[in-house]
Write a structure and sequence with these properties.
The protein has 394 residues and is mostly helical. The protein folds into two domains: 5-195, no CATH class; 212-371, no CATH class. It is built from 19 helices and no strands.
Length: 394
């Protein structure tokens, strides 16, 4: 592999000067698409400010080595761009760094010269997804501001990690699932399998349920959601002899990967413990780290963010419960299922925030869209309605 360390000879400012072409691409995309689709200037300004985030995260707010996976993607994309690694080799190689890097390498950006470069690639995806959601009229007054101001989304969409790719493909899969476009939803769910198979096995059943129950038109009654939950619970009990060793394997592997000692991790001991852990870990995964668990400034910020996000989720869910429980039930099932899976195997607080934010964002986006949540608080009780109204211009 070619030596990439030459960039550091240019110093802090020099590294960032090399990124100006990528910054320009992102800014042009914001203003050209903003003009084309007549997006309000306040939204364009926030998107433009987001374009500068890659400059002020790595080696400013924290060391790049704090999230060392960024170096892996940087090196892999360079290997693909300079021919040291073929695209076929990348797809069939072990792990998923190379697979994710293929999608980065195909993007219309200069070859990444530093670990912060891919932050602009991800910012580009974040911008494109904004306009897709805008044109598809998914946004409401609430969800558009959440998309633009959610701190975890701002952070991870400006770093050189795969999380934005995952969020991008997951959201597009759901968009086309809601439109009952089976081929397009299948097309966008395939990359998720390549770059993060866990999310594929979470999203896949959810998409199937959406099609089977025709949620787009009929919604899903709370009774159906509870029935599916009960069937899933029964499935957990029946599969316990096979599932428990697998879950324990991943619990230990991820705990050790995050720097823990395998002797410090408690293993699931039986079917009852399996069910109990699955139910309780979902809630804990949604809220951690708690303020008193924070051991660094970043974790403290993330814990305070959790308080804000939980408040938003509560207000959105309460209104959706009053407006359209049938549509809400499906998204509650989606959130509970995803939080339970990851809650069983993820212990590191930073990792939890990284893995959680796409699911939280998707929940907010599509609960607001399906249940027409246009404000966080309502002064009066709202009766159920049958047809949501989406207004991207609001």
């Amino acid at each position: 592999m070619s030596d990439l360390s030459w960039i550091y000879s240019y110093g802090f400012l020099g590294v960032r000067l090399f990124e100006l072409p990528s910054l320009l691409i992102c800014l042009l995309m914001v203003f050209l698409l903003g003009y084309k689709f007549q997006v309000k200037q306040k939204y364009q300004v926030l998107l433009a400010l987001h374009c500068f985030l890659p400059f002020v995260l790595n080696d400013v707010l924290f060391s790049t080595s704090y999230m060392p996976d960024q170096f892996k993607y940087w090196r892999a994309v360079n290997s693909l761009r300079n021919g040291e690694l073929s695209f076929i080799q990348a797809f069939i190689s072990d792990g998923n760094v190379n697979q994710a890097s293929v999608f980065f390498a195909l993007m219309p950006f200069p070859t990444p010269v530093s670990p912060i470069s891919l932050g602009f690639y991800n910012t580009f995806l974040y911008i494109i997804l904004f306009f897709v959601l805008y044109v598809k009229r998914v946004f409401t007054n609430v969800s558009i501001w959440f998309y633009l101001l959610f701190p975890s989304a701002a952070l991870y969409t400006a770093l050189s990690l795969r999380e934005t790719l995952i969020f991008f493909f997951m959201t597009l899969t759901i968009i086309y699932t809601r439109e009952s476009k089976i081929f397009k939803s299948a097309l966008f769910v395939i990359p998720i399998y390549l770059i993060k198979f866990q999310n594929f096995f979470i999203l896949g059943p959810i998409v199937l349920i959406y099609f089977i129950f025709n949620v787009a038109r009929k919604g899903m009654s709370l009774a159906k959601a509870l029935m599916i939950g009960a069937i899933s619970l029964a499935g957990l009990l029946l599969s316990a002899p096979i599932a428990i060793p697998l879950v324990n394997f991943f619990r230990v592997a991820m705990f050790v990967e995050d720097g823990g000692d395998r002797d410090d991790i408690s293993l699931i001991t039986g079917a009852g413990d399996f069910v109990f852990q699955g139910l309780t870990s979902a809630l804990y995964f949604l809220v951690k780290p708690l303020p008193w668990e924070a051991t660094s400034a970043l974790q403290l910020i993330q814990s305070l963010e959790n308080v804000f996000v939980l408040g938003v989720l509560f207000l959105i869910t309460r209104q959706a419960w009053r407006k359209n429980l049938d549509k809400l039930a499906f998204w509650l099932l989606f959130l509970a299922f995803s939080m339970s899976i990851y809650g069983l195997v993820v212990f590191n607080y930073g990792t939890a925030v990284r893995y959680r934010y796409p699911f939280v964002m998707i929940y907010v986006l599509f609960v607001c869209a399906d249940c027409n949540i246009t404000r966080l608080r309502s002064n009066k009780r709202i009766k159920n309605y049958t047809q949501p109204i989406f207004k991207s211009s609001e």
